[in-house]
Design brief:
Elements lengths: L1 H31 L12 H28 L16 E6 L2 E7 L7 E4 L2 E6 L4 H6 L7 E2 L4 E6 L1
Parallel strand pairs: 2-4
Antiparallel strand pairs: 1-2, 1-6, 3-4, 5-6
């Protein structure tokens, strides 16, 4: 099951990377092409486009790294009574709403359809990732009021 999730996340990352590369290419052309030529001393379009192109290039590198990680990622299964560690798939409940989280090494914030809802990836930078570490099914996360239903 986790292998299929990793494949779906990898496909989503690949799609995001392709979109970002196309956007970066278009922005670079806007910064360096004829349309970017300054029309007056207060015209800063080319400068703004170059800043955007730099940011898009950096985001592209981040996505490429995440894609590389996910292409090689193998996630183990957890026993139902195991402590939550990186790689865990966690089912939670908050105010009657079921949520699913996958603790991944990077690329947090990606949502994909899963069972009756959505699964969201959490990376180590996320506070919820840190709150979940070391917890078990049946534990209540005090910071959010979220109940852990299942770990796999």
């Amino acid at each position: 099951m986790k292998d299929q999730l990793v494949r779906e996340i990898t496909a989503r990352l690949s799609q995001q990377l392709n979109t970002m590369l196309e956007a970066a290419k278009a922005t670079h052309e806007a910064a360096t092409g004829d349309e970017g030529k300054q029309e007056g001393k207060y015209d800063t379009r080319a400068l703004e486009a170059s800043y955007l192109a730099d940011a898009q290039a950096e985001q592209s590198q981040t996505l490429a790294h995440a894609l590389h990680v996910f292409k090689q990622l193998k996630l183990d299964s957890f026993s139902p009574d195991a402590e939550i560690t990186p790689g865990a798939l966690v089912e939670t409940e908050l105010d009657g709403t079921i949520s699913y989280f996958l603790l991944t090494p990077c690329a947090g914030g990606i949502s994909i359809p899963y069972e009756t809802g959505e699964l969201t990836t959490l990376s180590p930078e996320a506070p919820l990732y840190q709150d979940l570490l070391g917890q078990q099914a049946g534990d209540l996360i005090e910071a959010s009021g979220m109940m852990i239903l299942e770990v796999s």
